[in-house]
Amino acid sequence: MGLLDWFKGGSGESKIKKYGKKLRNKDTPVEERESIAHDLAEDGSEEAILALLGRFEMTYEHSMKDASEKERVTNLMLGLGDKAVKPLEIFLKASNAFSRPLSIYERLTNPEQAQVLVLELVEAEYKKSGLKPKKKRALLVKLADFKGPNVVVSALRFVDDFDEGCRASAVEVLIAQQENEAIRERLLQRLSGEDEDSSRICFRIAEVAAARSWPLGDHAASISARPPMNFVVNGGRLVAG
What we know:
- Helices cover 63% and strands 3% of the residues.
- The protein has helices spanning 12-23, 30-43, 46-53, 63-80, 85-94, 99-108, 111-127, 134-143, 149-156, 164-176, 181-192, 199-211, 220-225, and strands at residues 231-234, 237-240.
- Strands 1-2 form a two-stranded antiparallel ribbon.
- It is elongated, with a radius of gyration of 23 Å.
């Protein structure tokens, strides 16, 4: 008899919810959390898988034990195969604890499907309040793993974000893409503008512009007047100086 059968009365779903709470509770003994995780995986319903994924939302103070538990949950999720895909999508759209679950999703699906989901997650963060940029920032870092026109369109919207980390991550996404005039122009526009106060972002754009010998065009005068540290404008291009 599995642990799910120990709860008497109520629906199976209510039992699963109780299990999910115990799995996320730091005070639940490790051995009991492990048994719960195995029972949830054995149940295999959407509700049970979502409860199992909840373990990723709890961080145990003993980092090695925490990592070991999460690795076991990862293996249980992988063992569920295709039935874990939909619950993973639901969880990833709702939770801030997305690093490991997204890695599981990538292993269970394919790069194209993973890219579509990441773009959906980035879009959702774009529409939210900018006061909590942590998930948005991390998703933009992940977005740099993918390439394509849709990735460029998504990243371009964050080049002017209020959060420096989001701007820096968006810049890295664009740098990682196949270079085109739109990308060059947008990055040079950011570099030449007076509202970019991040020296690391200016340096990074200048570093790439110099390495790729980008013509500065209409931006040459303004960049020359305020060149990033260790760079000068020479012949309409940035060079390390």
